[in-house]
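retry 2 of 3: previous attempt timed out while embedding flavin mononucleotide. Reduced batch size to 1 and resubmitted. Inputs unchanged:
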Amino acid sequence: MNSMTDPEFNNLSSLSNYFATRRSGRPRNLVEPGPSDDQIRGFVETAMRTPDHGKLAPWRVVMVASDQRDILAEGLKAAYIKENPNAGRTEIEAMENMAKEAPALLVVLSSPIESSKIPLWEQELSCGAFCMNILHAIHLEGFLGGWITGWPAFNNDVRDMFGNAPEKIAGFVFVGSSEAPLKERPRPNLDNIFSHWDGAKID
Ligand SMILES: Cc1cc2nc3c(=O)[nH]c(=O)nc-3n(C[C@H](O)[C@H](O)[C@H](O)COP(=O)(O)O)c2cc1C
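retry 2 succeeded.
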């Protein structure tokens, strides 16, 4: 079953239905079919319409090809052992497995322009929105995406495999199709996150 044939989630019959049913996939559960290279370029092109103060495009995407997954696995393993010399086999295997999940993998980098007057925070917010838009683009083509970080996103040796400081890994976006029906996850209560301003004044 892929996300197109799962009636409950990522319903593409209308934009409002899609947003009401949007659901990510778990990278480890994503299977073939995956997107073509052209479709992947299309996802990135769609995400390029992300709001971006100052027209800086403070984000970029590096695609890891299928035949590069073993190299990535070796890299994650080496970086993990360097930071955790006493790491156990299970932890190391988790890194190797992550590198090989799903048919397609995109690494999204927050790529801020430090010399700009636009605050770093705004540039990073834009990158978060960019990741979200890539996910939407993936779902709109009938695939399923999963945006995760995990330990590798916070390690500089891993970052250096894809970019350079001050860039940071904003996420690993895995793409494929669902091997099993998706399940709902709890969502927040609207009244816990939405309120009317009480008009507080500055003393
Ligand atoms: C920046 C970011 C990092 C995330 N990292 C992880 C992660 O490392 N592992 C994980 O299981 N989920 C992670 N998630 C959560 C999943 O991407 C996903 O959003 C979550 O499972 C909820 O699914 P939904 O998108 O259908 O709401 C992360 C989400 C965000 C926004």
